[in-house]
Amino acid sequence: MLPRILRLLGHILRAVLTTALVLPWCSRARRRQLICHWSRTLLRHLRLTVQVQGAWPDGPGPYLLTSNHISWVDIFVIHSVHPVRFVSKSEVRHWPVFGWLAAQTGTLFLSRSSRRQTLEIGKAMIQVLQAGDDLGFFPESTTSDGTTILPFKTALLQSPLDCQATLLPVALRYSAPQGHEESAYPFIGNMTFTESLVRILKSPPSQVTLSLGTPLRATELGTDRRQLALQLHTLTQRLRESM
Length: 243
Known about the structure:
The protein has about 240 residues and is of the alpha/beta class. It is about 40% helix and about 15% strand.
C-alpha cells in the first residue's frame, strides 16, 4: 500500500501547487478543466471507477445540483464529470489539505448550528448562481450508508425558490467489490477523515454510479420548501432505483 500512498501524496501536492499558483489566474472554463482532470486522477489513485448514467445538460446553466450523500469522495465523483462549487459543512474546512483545497475552489461552508449563517449561506448561494457558477449541495445534510436516501432538509431550499434556480437532481450509488458485503466508501458515524481514507486505500477496486437527472425549475417542483424537498427526494430515489 505504501507506493499507492506515495503516489496519492504526490497528486495532492500537485493540487496544492495548482490551486495556489494557477487557478487564481484561470478562466472559468480552464478552472473546470483542471479540477475535472485532477478529480479523475484522484479517483484512479483510489481505484474507483465512475459509471455515468445520463449526460450533463446542454443548456448554459447555471445549475443547482442536488444529490444524496454517502462519502467525502462524492464531491470528486461529481467533479470528475462536471466541476461545481459546493455547500459543505463547516467541519470540512478543518480537514488536512482537503479543507484548504475546498476553500480555495469556492466552497461555501455552513455551520448547521447557526440559523443566522444558514440565511447568509442562502444569500451566497443566490449570488453564486447569479454570477453564472454551477453549485451543488446535499439536501440530506449528512451522509448515509448508501442503502437508502435520508429525508431531505428544507433549510437551504428557500434560495432556489427565491431565485427560480434550475435544479439538476443526481444520485450516487457505490457498489461493493466482488466477494465483499459492503463498500468501503460510506463515511458515517464517528469515522474520521483519516480513518475513511485508510479504509478506502486498503479496499479492492470499486465502482460508483452517478445518475444525472433532467433539469427542472425549482418552482416546477414546489411552491414552498417542504414541497420542494419531498419532490426532490422522490426524483433522487427514482434515479437511484434506475441504477
